[in-house]
Amino acid sequence: MVTPVRVVIALCLLAPFVAMLWVGSYAKVDPVFIGIPFFYWYQMLWVPLSAALTVTAYKLWQRDRRGRVAAAPASSGASPKGGASE
């Protein structure tokens, strides 16, 4: 099921791939930052950004799953772990 939260999760996970695969957008020298050409510092900037976006996607996924488990009817017979209740 596609929900707005899942769309945000997908965008968080896809953004680093698109940013790194679109080489033409950062294949240049200027602007130089502390003596480092743009080509290098732009890629290094995406390392912590990718980690932050991945953590954000994970937290959103956890929140989405908790909301779905809480919204599931108690009489469905499913446990929160996804297995059948005894």
TrEMBL record:
The chain crosses the membrane at residues 7-27, 39-58. The keyword Transcription does not apply. It comes from the Bacteria. Pfam families: DUF3311 (PF11755). Keywords: Membrane, Transmembrane, Transmembrane helix. InterPro entries: DUF3311. The keyword Plastid does not apply. PANTHER family: BSL5891 PROTEIN. This is DUF3311 domain-containing protein.
